[in-house]
């Protein structure tokens, strides 16, 4: 997915608009005008990753000293970022040597570059700085997703109490419209008073990992969920889009972007 400034994921899978407008730099306006005159359309740079702003909780989980940068939540398989080696959980701190303050700033930087441009990304992965070089693609004209739901494992105590799940079977995968590379367990029932429900999880969400440990089946979920006592980092997939969520045991002070 193209990098866009968004809040919680919307029904279309691209995220909901947060209503923030940006001033268009003069060099971007000039490029747009030249492209319209030349080809009748505007081509925007495409990184192929869903991103979000960093909260203090997420910064701590991903070993970043502050909340500057953009967190890679869902790297599109086979996309430009994936080919360059970007991974889910990487924090992009600079684009072509320029600091990235938040997801919106990265958005402007990428969309101001033409497809085929070579961009340098300075990232932090597991607390270690790295540099990647990516050749930008062209943003697809439409990006969609789907939804539905399906019963298996559960925990009654700890941070992840109140969640019932089942294995992600081929039939459920087809029903949810999920790509073949998505693995995990599907939330089939959610206590509305549970911490997870308060942080925005929904029936039909797929839990892919707990505290960075992969969840391949109900057995993995039961084991890892039973160990989750404090703040817990989940990677979930909703309508084909992966996101990271920090759940607090008391249902307060986390992040659901």
How would you describe the overall organization of this protein?
The longest helix has 14 residues, at 26-39. The two termini are 16 Å apart. The model is unreliable at 1-29, 142-151 and 253-257 (pLDDT under 50). The protein has helices at 26-39, 56-61, 80-84, 103-111, 170-176, 195-198, 218-227; strands spanning 45-46, 49-53, 70-75, 91-95, 98-99, 118-125, 128-135, 137-138, 153-154, 163-167, 185-190, 206-210, 213-214, 232-238, 241-247. The chain has 257 residues and is of the alpha+beta class.
Q: Layout of SSEs?
A:
Layout: H1 26-39, E1 45-46, E2 49-53, H2 56-61, E3 70-75, H3 80-84, E4 91-95, E5 98-99, H4 103-111, E6 118-125, E7 128-135, E8 137-138, E9 153-154, E10 163-167, H5 170-176, E11 185-190, H6 195-198, E12 206-210, E13 213-214, H7 218-227, E14 232-238, E15 241-247
Antiparallel strand pairs: 1-8, 2-3, 3-4, 4-5, 4-6, 6-7, 9-10, 10-11, 11-12, 12-13, 12-14, 14-15
Q: Rg to the nearest angstrom?
A: 19 Å
Element string (H = helix, E = strand): HEEHEHEEHEEEEEHEHEEHEE
List how many beta strands DSSP finds: 15
Alpha-carbon distance between the two ends? 16 Å
SS element count, helices: 7
Shape: globular
Assign a percent range to the helix content: 10-25%
SS-derived structural category: alpha+beta
Average the pLDDT over all residues and give the rounded result: 78
Low-confidence stretches: 1-29, 142-151, 253-257
Biggest sheet character: 7 strands, antiparallel
**How big a fraction of the residues is strand?**
25-35%
